[in-house]
Amino acid sequence: MFVFRKEDLPADPGFPAELDKLGYFITSEDKIRKISDPEQEFQFKINRNPRWNDLQREAMNECIRKIVLSRLRNLGLVTLRLPLISGPSKPHVPIMVSRNLTTASRIILVFGEPVQDLGIWAYRTVGTEGINTGSAVDFARTILNPDESSTTTNGTNGNSTNPLPSQKGGVALVLANTGQLVFHCESGRAMTLTSWSSLPRVSAVDPSPVMTDRNRIPGNGNWQEHVNSVFDGIFAARGQLVGHGAKIDVIGSAEGGLGAIRYLAKNWTSWRQYISAICLTNPLHKRDIDLFKLDDEEQSPGSFAAFMASRCRAYLLSHHPLGFPLNDEKVHGCNCYSSGEELNGECVMPKAWPSMLQWLNLAYDHPEYCEKQLVVMHVGAGAPNGVDGD
């Protein structure tokens, strides 16, 4: 049998996590482009061996992460470790919170997708439209520094085109981290499964490092546990980490939104008075499965199902323009609208968040506000959905 000696195996490739050494720079439009060809975006495939391509992409992603986290810190966000009792060298997951968390009367809580890093909406959008657009930077600036922000969207359905949040009593921001839930002991940091698979190996053909219990973060072993940890560890500490009467706007993307819905459905009695409204992108929950005891609670004004119907919106993949009503209420239990994104679920948030903030502002400023039931009907054979009422 033919066997390669270890010294004959191809060495694991390495790429520096520095833009210029990777051959890229940031343009005046905040886009990452090639130094050799300023019109060209990031080139993923540089080798026939997937390992080379994956590691180069991870090096680029690390550059983006450093830039995004630096910009978020400059906007006033700080890192908070979960569990709260963990030290910097102990297994923990970082989240980002604004400095006014304990004093704000309104808190916007964001649960992203498990496949993304902290503060990143979509690397795909970062590459095509810009760093701030594909990350939470523009979003955070609009919330925390509204004087520096301007109108960024054209709303629909009669909404104002101004996404700036209501500043009554101050607005805080919490960016949860459903993606980086594996702790790498050697580097002392949490990472996504994608980053874990990009860790150095003995050779280019060796498998990824084996995960053990040492890599598990207590209370944050998966995205659902992390959602529970954020609510129970931070927001349940009324009068300590958050104000006694602070209202919470929940934004959830894909599994992040599913985790929030499942948690609140199970614990609605305890959280009913604190949740102002909910916005979801690419929702994964099902009305008849995740909204517990729906048939029994539907008639109760205080039920979670009733809250979802009146104080929740979802933005879905659709070829229709942003804000176009969709006929998915019976699936998700809330009014559904087009995100303006047709193909990639991860790209919904970058396109829809200004419209989401507009509606969350409306709901917060008017506690008695309730969503009107949409009646969507087909007009003509093969014609797009039309709206009979909103």
Structural class: alpha/beta
CATH class: Alpha Beta
> On the 0-100 scale, what is the average pLDDT?
90
Low-confidence stretches: 151-161, 386-390
Total of helices: 14
How do the strands line up in the largest sheet?
A: 3-4-6-5-9-10-11-13-12
**Total tally of structural domains:** 1
How would you characterize this protein structure?
It is built from 14 helices and 15 strands. The chain is of the alpha/beta class and 390 residues long. The chain has one domain (80-201, 210-377): Rossmann fold. Strand 1 (24-26) and strand 2 (32-34) form a beta hairpin. Helix 7 (223-235) crosses helix 8. The longest helix has 25 residues, at 50-74. The chain is globular, with a radius of gyration of 22 Å. The chain starts with 18 loop residues before the first helix and ends with a strand. Residues 15-322 form the Arb2 domain. It comes from Aspergillus cavernicola. This is Arb2 domain-containing protein. InterPro entries: Arb2, Arb2_dom.
